[in-house]
Amino acid sequence: MPSPPPPARPRSVTLVAVLVVLVALGGLVAGSLSAFLGQRHQPVRVPAEHTHAAAARPDVPAPPVSTIAVPADRSVRLAATSLADAYAGRGLARPAVGSHPSAAAAVVARIDAGSGLTGEQFRLRRAGTRIGVTAGTAAGARAGLYTLADRVRSASTLVPAAEQGAVQRPRLGLRLTDAGAVGLDDDPARFARGDDYSLGTGRAAAAMLPAAPWVDRKAVARIAREFRAFVDRSLAQGYNAVVVDGFLEYVTFGELGVYPAGDPHPARARAMRRSFGPVWKYAHDMGMKVYLSTDMLATDPPLVRYLDRHAGGLDVDSPALWSVYRAGVAELFHELPYLAGMMIRVGEGGADYDVPGSDYSSALAVTTAAAVRRMLRAVLAPAAAAGKDVIFRSWTVGVGPVGDLHTNPDSYRRVLGSIHDRHLIVSTKYSAGDFYSHLALNPTLAVGDQRRIVEIQSRREFEGLGALPDDLGALDQTALRRLLADNPHIEGVWDWAQEGGPLYAGPRAMYLRHGFWQLWDLNVYLAARLAWHPDLDLARARADWVRQTLATDPAAVRAISAAFALSRTAITDGLYIGPYADRSVTALGLHPPPMMWIFEWDIVSGDSATFDTIYQICRGHLDEAIEQGRTAVRVVRRMRALIAGTDPGDWTEPALRGRFLAALDYQQSLFRTLAAYRTLVLRHAEWLDTGSHRAYDAWHAAQREFVARRAQHRARYGDSLALPAYNFTAAELGLARADRDVAMAWLSRALLAITLLALAAGAWAHRGRPGAVRSAPGATAVRGLWLGATRPWRLAELDPPRSRTDRLLVWALPAGVLVLSRAAYGWFASPVHLVGTLGAWLLYAVVLRALLGRRAGFRLWAALGGVALLRSALLLAVLSVRGPGRYWFDFWNLPGRRAGYVVLAVAAFGWLFVASFGALRAGYRLRRRRAAGAVLVAAGTPLAVLGALVAAIGLETVLTWWNDQLNLLPWGLSRILGLTVYLGIPTALPSAVGAAGVALGLAGGLLLVRRRHRPAA
Q1: CA quadruple 379, 384, 387, 388: dihedral sign
Q2: Residue 164: CB partners within 8 Å, gap ≥ 6?
Q3: CB count, 10 Å around CB of 918?
Q4: Residue-level pLDDT at 1017
Q5: pTM for the whole thing?
Q6: Residue 61: how many CB atoms within 10 A of its CB?
Q7: What confidence tens digit (pLDDT) does each residue in 161-173 have?
Q8: Which of 997, 978, 1016 is nearest to 198 (CA)?
């Protein structure tokens, strides 16, 4: 049977059409990529913070009081006890607390229903040696007594003339606190690891047992003691509500039959109610409202199975699902009637938030506006029936269609605008983002007619997790003043005394329990005072707290107050890069935080996305950005001098002075290291951008300083639990790669020269040249590579290989360039990237070669090798500038260059399949159908194999390996949020890719099947 004739060369119009399609495909990918990155930035209106220290003032003698007479009410008696303790704390005789004044010198509190005073309103009067507190309710009597106690502790006038007989009331009637460190594990071994970034707390988890009696009584007793102490202190500071985590732990769903017979959950829930009900009820009895908080959807394994059977799984659009949770909420309020309500969060959840020591968990499922409304209506119904409130947190952290509910007024109106229920309270952070500095105030707090409360964090998680002095009073005051002026529906605050961020990855500092918790107790105190009086004299209030907590001498109080007043300058300059932080940045559809170069908490970043972007925004203010780091070090030095200048004997406890100095020494060590590091990364980015020798020298000088400072910081604080060293792992990864940029650039230049010379030699060694040239060793190979790269349909004209050199060179040269160029692209530090890219090339080539059978593979290698050289030349041209660092600098910062590169890269990638098809047609005379089938099978094989491999390992794991090695996105991202969650990548993607590869392979296989033709008649 005669061989089919050689295929004709493609017409010019066909070739042009193919090229147009490939370029258009590249343009489509480039446009989609730019839209996905979505990089833009604009200035932020950062609230101004004006801080100063009050002048030293002498103590005001406390009037002698021998008795405190109060009504027979437990909560009022507790307030009276606080006043008596304040007298004793001043070194004065402790007054007796009773129901009737037994001496002329007395404080007399009375509740007069006919006084016209309501709620927490009270009057103070001083007449001779008597001080009277008049209120219309127990809440008012408590408020008056706690006010007197605060003034005794701060050595102030108890009843100023301006307040004599005046009605006093709080500006905000709901003042919540979290539960501090109550019930949290304080095991030093957990803190020693330093890399536990889990966010679950589970205050009652330590008391849970896996079997009957289900609850450890000793653990309950310990938690109860901690809780009572915390409640007593919070009441004295001015708070009147507390939030404690829990929901499913107290619910049995008895009427629904969620739990099958013999399941331990109902028995455990009843035991939890019996054991912890009295613990939480103590706060209620002492005058504090109690709210239980939970994530939605709250789940446990039997509940999930029940929902699978009766509600179609975790289908948040199903009324059947919400009927189950409605029943649970109704049961909660029935069994724990002292609760004031519950708090719900939908924006965070998953394994990082699981309750430790139990199977209770949460699912991040309520992500649409309709689902939020269904949830709220479901839980508000039983709440209203029981006279309870539901506090809904608007915190949604970018997840799902309601991801911007927290900061977008339009989203807020769309989601909550139709819900008008007096039992609904919406809780929102006052900053337009998380609790960072350099953020605008949250615009959603100015819209809506729902009852609102403002969230405040006293132990700032992103600013040292409580290890650094950080006086937030001025910022909190500015926020409250502006927000109250904008929204009359704001009725409260929620201050976090402990919560926020990981507990065990930072210092072992636990409110009222361990460490130098007094550093942020100042913020706890000021937040409550500002909720009472937003316009108070902040400098005076700070001095009051210092007098109560740290020092008794007026000069020492003044010095300590001055140090705290400087603390915000140190924090905002030392932990933030100002020209970047003062811009609102959008990228990847999200808003990166203003700190970003420390992502997050204590992880110092080293990735190209972060620092290339920061540099680009700071480019016109680079010297200013660098100088801020040095300014912060100087401010900390001034703070230390102020504290060191005080006498230990002037402090309430000399050990507190030592802790303060230790904290400032730690801050100085940290800020010196960070100042050197910011100089290093910004000068390196400047060198990538400009190639300046001055920037190169400054980069390496800063690198030497950073390496020395980092070593000192680690040596001193690496094993400290109270003041742990920051995590510089990611920074070191970035540093190692930056050091290789020059070497990678020179290697790329050499490879590019070899590639271009080989292609040029192939173009030169054509048929018209003398025979000596055509017969030179390797000439046929380079000629084949040139044709394979540019005109694969002419491979039929290629002479057979004349020597072993030709047969080796035709695949070895492109293979070597391919391997070395991809290794240089990853700084010779990314095996995952090499496995992915080289594995795909190898699988594709091997399958095509196998499909050719016994035919010689020379022309196939020429086609594939030619395209590999063409594609590598494009990559090497970019890497030759200033290494992979410059490649990624252009990718993140220069949309025009990025788009041009992506268009050419995608077109060159598509050209691989065109060249393969052309080589099979021209070089091996395959029919179109069989050539197309072979290309489809070969293209599908890498997709199927690599997709299955990634699916077996796990997409999050593979992405973490890949990102750690290429250092593109923050190292902490996968360890805190997860790359798939943060970027919205479906975890089923590898399986889908593998399935697509199988489909391509099957389609190609069908085309490869030889058709049987009927014999001619």
Answers
A1: positive
A2: 124, 125, 126
A3: 25
A4: 38
A5: 0.92
A6: 10
A7: 999 999 999 999 9
A8: 978
